[in-house]
Amino acid sequence: MDVLWDLKIPQSIIRKQNHDGSWTYPTRRASISVDYDQVETYRQLGFLIEMFGLNREHPSIEKAAEYVFSKQTPAGDFRGIYANQYTPNYTAALLELLIKTGYESDERILKTFAWLNSVRQNDGGWALAFRTQNRNLDTIYRNKDQLDLNKDRPFSHLITGVILRAYAAHPRFKNSEIAKDATKLLVSRFFERDVYPDRNHKDDWTRFSFPFWQTDILSSLDIVGIIEPDLANHQKVLEAKQWFIDMQLPDGLFAGHLLKDCYHDLQLWYSYAICRAFNRLS
């Protein structure tokens, strides 16, 4: 793996890392209550880990991991990106990357899973606490009070799909009934609007990035292939697979709405991720 670690792109990312292990968000925003550097650290870690295979043996990853763990609350979640509100999606997204670098047995990781298990909706999925209280981002950034989760509200497939990536990454939790049940819920929503306003357009399912960021049909098929491959013949899974089949180009690569990224070979990574998901579901 050292050959990949020494390539130009990962080295350029590493050179921009701060002494505390974080990366600085490129454009300063007016809101001082949002931890943008934590967002940028998540973004850069995704490139290093998902594209170039860096793990905790690399000092840059070790420093970044300790920075992320410094954001962990006594309850187990990572806080700051949504001001002082719960961030189950970013908590799980960071958790996924830490697991993939070799921290799966760390007590701090297990503590985060315990927290995620405790903040599920009654239907078995996850949602943002402030959305279950009918609040939006602008109001919570100005609100110093932590909003409680209304567990009687329905799950959000946007949030559930991100959280399940952490479960899929862990050798033990991917086999849990919590993960399996939530994966079935996620599949039931394929190509549908979310019940909350953050991703409430059907075409959000077919807007892609790599490394995965939001919930889309590719990131979801990836989850299904790991957690619940028996769903391979579920009607909605078959519809998602057919969508990609219809988008394959004569050269073998796949077309799709790829979100803006700094790498010119994003289509290759996107096509690779499709092939990987199909292989898991074969």
Describe the fold and architecture.
- The chain is mostly helical.
- The chain has one domain (71-280).
- Helix content is 50%, strand content 1%.
- The chain is built from 13 helices and 2 strands.
- The protein is globular, with a radius of gyration of 18 Å.
Summarize the structure.
This protein has 13 helices and two strands; from the N terminus they run ααααααααααβααβα. It is mainly α and 282 residues long. A two-stranded parallel ribbon has the order 1-2.
Tally of DSSP β-strands: 2
* Gyration radius, rounded: 18 Å
Uncertain stretches: none
Q: What fraction of residues sit in β-strands?
A: under 5%
Query: Biggest sheet: strands, sense, closure?
Result: 2 strands, parallel
Number of helices: 13
Mean pLDDT: 94
Percent of residues in helices comes to 40-55%
> What class do helices, strands and sheet pairing give?
mainly alpha
SSE topology string: HHHHHHHHHHEHHEH
Number of domains: 1
Write down the overall geometry: globular
- Strand order within the widest sheet? 1-2
Observed structural traits:
282 residues; mainly alpha; two-stranded parallel ribbon; 13 helices; 2 strands; 50% helix; globular
How do the helices and strands line up, and which of them pair or pack?
Elements: H1 2-5, H2 8-15, H3 36-51, H4 59-69, H5 88-103, H6 107-118, H7 129-132, H8 137-142, H9 157-169, H10 177-188, E1 207-208, H11 217-227, H12 235-246, E2 257-258, H13 266-280
Parallel strand pairs: 1-2
Helix pairs in contact: 3-5, 5-6, 5-9, 9-10, 9-11, 10-11, 11-13
